[in-house]
Amino acid sequence: MPSGRVRQSDLIVACVVGDGEAETGPLATAWHSNKFLNPITDGAVLPILHLNGYKINNPTVLARIEHEELEQFLRGCGWTPYFVEGDEPEKMHQLMASTMEKTIEGFGKSKAMHGTRTTPPAALADDRSQVT
Fold it and tell me: Has residue 98 got a pLDDT over 90?
């Protein structure tokens, strides 16, 4: 998830990741990148997990677990998850816009707590239909 944009303290890099992609080895490990990035000196990475439930062959593990378990997983990795859920494009657009505002505020709070380990925001766009 971290890009070549580190060491730019005023920058927020948004990385959109599909849930199938998020289950690959490198990206599964990247959920822990927030432990070595400092938003004060490095800028910030905002992961946006697109939870649609599909990968090439099978439904994803992340799509099969309950909402609460997914939230606990992300909190355990050190993120504060913000869920955007629905399947109507107009509503999802508005919900995602307001969530982006909240996540940017979250990064501001992280910077204000200099020297304290914080949990940066992560956004989850959940537009799964019936995934079994």
Answer: yes
Q: Read off the pTM.
A: 0.78
Sign of CA dihedral 19, 52, 62, 68: positive
Enclosing H/E stretch for 124: strand 121-126
For residues 114 and 116, give the distance between their C-alpha atoms in angstroms, rounded to a whole number: 6
Q: Which of 1, 98, 94, 4 is nearest to 49 (CA)?
A: 1
The sheet carrying 44-51 orders its strands as 12-18, 44-51, 121-126, 80-85
The Cα 124–Cα 104 span in angstroms is 15
Q: Is the pLDDT of residue 51 over 80?
A: yes
CA dist 94 and 45 (Å) reads 22
CB atoms within 10 A of CB 97: 10
16: tokens are 């959109």
Give the whole-angstrom CA distance, residue 2 versus residue 67: 25
2-11, 28-37, 66-75, 123-132: segment of lowest average pLDDT: 2-11
